[in-house]
Records
---
Amino acid sequence: MKIEHLGIAVANLEESIKVYETLLGTPCYKKEEVASEKVMTAFFKTGESKVELLGATSPDSVIATYIEKKGEGLHHVAFEVDDIKAEMQRLKDAGFRLLMDEPKKGADNKIIAFLHPKSCNGVLVELCQAIKE
Ligand code: CO
């Protein structure tokens, strides 16, 4: 599986966009709100992968809660799959705990599903599949 992106939780999205534009030497190519999660995302291309910055849009956002508990930093690792439902089933059968039964719409034209960090040695893992246009 290719690492599609790394998700990084940030306290101030606009400030962090500047930091990552300088770090990666490339502009943010997309900002997109995921209203269901109360999160604003900002994407950067780097090599074959991407970086996704995640900022809370509300104090009760999952990202606000995360930063309160753990501080800013690496939030999840996203692997690209061709058939997300098949992968979810395969991993479920292998004993992994999924955080959802059905894939849901994520940012950047993807459907996504998360695996519980307890199943992945402390890492929140996202599976993502590109939505065909
Ligand atoms: Co992600």
---
Amino acid sequence: MPAKPETSVLFVCLGNICRSPLAEGVFRAVCTERGVESAVLLDSAGTGGWHAGSSPDPRSIAIAAHHGMDISGQRARKVVAEDFDRFDLILGMDRSNVDDLLRIAPAEARQKIHLFLEYATGRRADVPDPYYGGPEGFADVYRMVRNASEALADKLFERAEVPESGQASSMT
Ligand code: 4NP
């Protein structure tokens, strides 16, 4: 049973064809594995609109398929003003994405914007842009996104927790 049953998360990168569609697909799969898919609203977007309407990059589709996920139905879009109202959590893939989001966000939405890996794992690190590199860059992105998605799910849907005393908590 999720502790916070209603959560919405927007994953953001530059083009919304490489990293954020993969993050959306992987986090959706993690939520499905944990039985909380119906409790989350997920989407992804880009700070740039050059690829609006496009499918994810074939290399992102391929690495997702390799891990049993179909992200081919996603379509790229640019971040819009309503996103800052609609989503509880807006996670940039790298620090330039976060800076760009902070520049366009209304003041009251700024606290929703975080660096994905830092928010999920506590480690201040970027998911690097793989667009101009080879397929190994996409495998790296997949690994980072998978680890961060597991950590994000732990954080949002607190599983049976072991408190700091080291004793499992009871329901009473
Ligand atoms: P993404 O990768 O931000 O992970 O979707 C990119 C995709 C396209 C471009 C840059 C990064 N581009 O310059 O077109």
